[in-house]
Amino acid sequence: MARIANQIRTLRFLAGEMTQAELGDRIGVTRQTIAAIEQGKYSPTLESAFRIARVFGKPLEEVFQWEE
Predict the structure, then answer these.
(1) Does the pTM of the predicted model rise above 0.90?
(2) How many domains does the chain have?
(3) Rounded CA separation 4/21 (Å)
(4) Where are the beta strands (DSSP E) in 1-68?
(5) For residue 35, how far is the Cα from the chain centroid?
(6) Which Pfam families does this one have (predicted)?
(7) CATH number, domain at 25?
């Protein structure tokens, strides 16, 4: 089954150990939403995905990957 993988946890660590709550605040979602996205239990909206990538200064494809 295909899924969207992501590098959010690694990027948070590299960004001074940013918490899920801090990332959520910066993009306008809850900590629980960030946790679910990181774990692959929830696919972010396109807008949220772009916002997350922008926080880390990365292109979208470096943050999110489509795995088949």
Answers:
(1) yes
(2) 1
(3) 21
(4) 3-6, 64-67
(5) 9
(6) HTH_3
(7) 1.10.260.40
The tokens of 23 are what? 């990332």
6: which strand partners?
64
CA Rg value for the chain: 11
Residue 54 buriedness (CB in 10 A; 0-12 / 13-18 / 19+): middle
Per-residue pLDDT reduced to its tens digit, 30-55: 999 999 999 999 999 999 999 999 99
Type of residue numbered 58: K
Angle between helices 20-27 and 46-56 (to 10 degrees): 120
Which phi and psi (to 5°) does residue 66 adopt? -90, 120
Which H or E run contains 25?
A: helix 20-27
